[in-house]
Design goal:
This protein is α/β, with parallel strands linked by helices and about 250 residues long. It is built from eleven helices and eleven strands. The strands form two sheets. An eight-stranded mixed β-sheet has the order 2-3-6-7-8-9-10-11, covered by helices on one side. Strands 1-5-4 form a three-stranded mixed β-sheet, with no helix packed on it. A hairpin with a 7-residue loop joins strand 2 and strand 3. Bound molecules: iron/sulfur cluster. Iron/sulfur cluster binds next to loops. It comes from Pyrococcus kukulkanii.
Length: about 250
């Protein structure tokens, strides 16, 4: 893994994600190396995705700025990827950030719980853990290096117990594999809200598409056939209605 240390001019960048005004990426690139990750399409470097991580060494100094609107940490990396345990860059960014800023964190790692004492200093903070029920064969194929589901669910519970608002980002939804209903049933007692995102098949890359088609042809068929997808989406909406939980959005990438 190549670590590239860099000084940058600005940390807060304008976001095009609906409902998010700013994004903060103190790291660019990600050691979790999810096979379907579409951040690689946004960042575009010659070296293969996840063979490098860029570290913005002066990010804590730049974090002091006061910005208006919701900030997402992070959009093209995971703020709690393995290197963070040692570098504590995300922790420093949080320490120095203007606490009036409205912060939304998204990670796949329970390491975020380490920073609860700093997160409590923000009047407006919400912490999301990505959950998708990938285990066994699917986990090996799709995201072999990420923390296991149980650890992420426990992190959501720990955040709730510490009084930090949280959300479960159910992503990527792959029909027949991601069990949306089971995830919600298991977490609804300690999760504030949900956001659902289907697999972005177009941006997942040729290799991932081929693997999915070969290994899970039925899931692939639902994602690529308009009628099958529409009926599957309807079934998910029925589940959400039945379970009566707060859902902030469903991204289908269609
Ligand atoms: S954790 Fe997120 S940013 Fe990192 S590789 Fe996976 S999908 Fe991409």
């Amino acid at each position: 893994m190549k670590i590239i240390k860099r000084k940058v001019k600005t940390l807060y960048t304008r976001s095009r994600i609906p409902g998010i005004e700013w994004s903060v990426n103190q790291y660019v690139g990600c050691q979790f190396a999810c096979k379907y990750c579409y951040a690689k399409e946004i960042v575009r470097r010659e070296e293969p995705w996840s063979s490098w991580v860029e570290v913005k060494v002066n990010a804590p100094d730049l974090a002091r700025k006061r910005v208006k609107g919701t900030i997402l940490m992070s959009s093209v990396s995971d703020p709690y990827q393995p290197i963070e345990a040692k570098l504590k860059l995300t922790r420093s960014v949080l320490r120095f950030m203007d606490k009036r800023n409205e912060l939304m964190i998204l990670t796949k790692s329970p390491l975020v719980v380490r920073d609860v004492s700093i997160l409590k200093l923000f009047p407006t903070v919400e912490v999301g853990l990505t959950v998708n029920s990938f285990e066994g064969k699917e986990k090996k194929l799709f995201e072999p290096l990420t923390p296991i589901q149980r650890a992420r669910i426990n992190a959501l519970k720990a955040l709730h117990e510490e009084g930090i608002k949280n959300y479960a980002f159910i992503s990527p939804i792959i029909p027949g594999i991601t069990d949306v209903e089971a995830i919600i049933r298991e977490t609804r007692d300690f999760v504030n809200w949900y956001f659902l995102e289907f697999l972005n098949l177009k941006k997942a890359g040729e290799e991932f598409r081929k693997n999915l088609e070969e290994e899970f042809p039925e899931s692939y068929a639902v994602l690529t056939d308009y009628d099958k997808f529409t009926s599957y989406l309807r079934s998910i909406k029925d589940v959400l209605k039945r379970l009566n939980v707060r859902v902030e959005g469903i991204e289908t990438h269609k």
